Amino acid sequence: MFGDQKVSFSGVQPSGNLTIGNYLGALRNFSAYSEAYKTFYCVVDEHAITVRQVPAELRRRTYETLALYMACGLDPEKNTLYVQSMVHEHAELSWILNCFTMFGELSRMTQFKDKSAKHADNINAGLFTYPVLMASDILLYQTDVVPVGVDQKQHVELCRDIATRFNQVYPDTFTIPEPIVAKQGRKIMSLAEPEKKMSKSDENPNAVVYILDDRDTIIRKFKRAVTDSESEIRYDEAAKPGVSNLITIYSCFTGKTVEEIEREFDGKGYGDFKAAVGEACADALAPVQAEFNRRLADKAGLEAQMKKGAEEASWYARRTLSKVQKKLGFVQIR
Ligand code: TYM
Questions:
Q1: Domains and CATH numbers, the chain
Q2: How big is the CA angle at 194 (ends 191 and 196), to the nearest 5 degrees?
Q3: Which residues does ligand 1 sit against, CB inside 6 Å?
Q4: Any idea what DSSP says for residue 18?
Q5: Is the pTM of this model over 0.85?
Q6: Ligand 1 atom 34: the closest Cα is on which residue?
Q7: How do the residues of the chain divide into helix, strand and coil, expressed in percent and rounded to 5?
Q8: pLDDT 10s digits, 165-211
């Protein structure tokens, strides 16, 4: 809570082309809070440098991610949309919270274990303390709810533990946030290896549907999706992970329930089903893509938004950081 306003905060890394996993698990759920909450949605470029980035690409994707926020229905008049590195309080609070986070806690983070296996030549300290920066993002705004996909839930839970620990020493500092994981779309799986999460860093482009893929590409990728040797369209995550993932995706894009989908495709083959999923996905993404292109073409508009968003966010971030510094005993002379 900031004053008497409830707060929603979330972030997306500009570290690759965003996928329908990012869209269904996170982005499309952000706008649900725009009316009743004070909302902050951040392009987290500081998180992205925990793995090496090409500077020009990072810059381009930062613009693109902001344009995509708007294309996903986030009106900049109703939501604070901004870029993390333009608000220095994130990095500052992160140092302080490092001193309230235990080595053992960070060692248990599954994303750290996965990423350090994947980037064995660059297991830098930032990769390890990444969840502390994420906790700082959230806590700076006295956040109540954090809409995320299920893979980020562990990080939000750690954020709660850090905030609780800080509050025990310095009472009434932080609001304790709640992760909000969508019932459907919480974990969209790879189309090539449906036991694995769909990830923007996957090297196999057929495993991933990007939000900005064109219609033909989307339909082709779904046609190639791995299923199983049966022919029945039935939801069973353990026995039929590929088909179950496609049912989830179809359900997210059409609003139909799993039972309705099973009935709709009763007696039909995988070919028909995959084509229908591809069509539904392409139809749903078409307006998002059109709005994205419109927003991206207006570079000056995006830059004006980056400036305005950073100013708005800084106002809140400064208030929390200054409260924290005062409680810690840092000298404050204004
Ligand atoms: P990132 O950039 O990896 O992903 C952005 C959001 O997309 C969700 N997501 C998925 N949801 C369902 N199925 C999938 N296959 C899938 N892949 C990704 C993620 O759960 C996330 O919600 N650490 C965060 C970014 C971050 C953040 C924050 C989030 C930084 N600070 C503060 C919330 C609050 C991350 O790497 O997300």
A1: 7-183+299-328 (3.40.50.620), 205-292 (1.10.240.10)
A2: 105
A3: 9-13, 21-22, 24-26, 44, 47, 134, 137-138, 146, 148-149, 151-152, 155, 185-188, 197-198
A4: -
A5: yes
A6: 10
A7: 55, 10, 35
A8: 999 999 999 999 999 999 999 999 999 999 999 999 899 989 999 99
